[in-house]
Amino acid sequence: MTLEENLKKLKNIQPDPTYTDYSRRAILASVQLQQITFGKIIGRILETAGSVALVGLMIFAITGGFSGSKYLSPVQFSGIDPSALHAEAQAIDMQINLANLTYTEATHIAAPQPVAPLLGTGTADSSTLTANVSSTVSATAISGTGVGSASLAASTTQEAPSSSISINEGLQKLTQ
Amino acid sequence: MLDGEEKLIHDAVKGDSSAFGLLYDHYQPMIYRFVAVKVGRREEAEDITHQVFLSAWQNIRRYEHRGHPFSSWLYRIARNRIIDHYRSSHENVSLEGLAVEEIVVAPQNAASDISAQLEMERVLKALHELKPEYQDVIILRFIEDLSIKETAAAMKKTEGAVKLMQHRAMAELRKILEE
Hints:
heterodimer; A: mainly alpha; 10 helices; about 0% strand; B: 9 helices
């Protein structure tokens, strides 16, 4: 038998079928590696560097007291004048304050007026009554009953402290 | 060469595992044989063969068809894996370490031919005494029946160099067997 024929017989070397089956399934179940290109490497580096830079910038801005509202608010629209809006807002506040002031002054001043005519003439002045709502209530109660009442005087005092002295004086006059 | 090999390779490159499975079925026995003859131990041959095909599957996107058969690429991976195996294990295959009976399967009609079995073992041991390159050229040319061109592609040599190596390898093998 020649050497070549002996070498041919080594072709009888065969893998174990069980091993072959196991190996085949294991290999095909594995995931293929992604091809790494120069562009992908550069992309990854830029992505990472960008993320780090952005985080660093945010940390720097936060620790440095940066406020975006200075630059971002109010948002500028072409059809709106911010200064006009600001002035209008200021004017609204002023009107509210003036209305409150007028109401307070009217309450303070007008309260004695409906009681005094009532005590003197026995009738209430309608124009005066409408000027002060709280005083109108107490005055109507007094004129309707025609009788002085301690409890009525007390309730009137609670509702309108500014006018309670005048009512008591009126009651005193009535009793005289 | 496998029928429709280019189509199978093309599909495998695109991630078709069934296409690669067919390539595996066709080439695995010859790669296993190549590795088994080189390392001489069944378990090591199985491990290395598995690594060869795993590496081939995971890196098949890098494969470029240059007119050589797919087996040339697999043989090159196998050769590198065997070199890595010996580097990592820091040991050489000794004649005593060969488990020839583990890897050699005698043909059925020669089961009773003990002398043929002994002759194969003797040839295998003589083969292991050759330089790795001589082993490769003998395995590829005479066991796997590859052509000169295919052998040259697998070994990254010129056809002339393969012819010369084959001549020297056979002469040396005969000399070893005669001793």
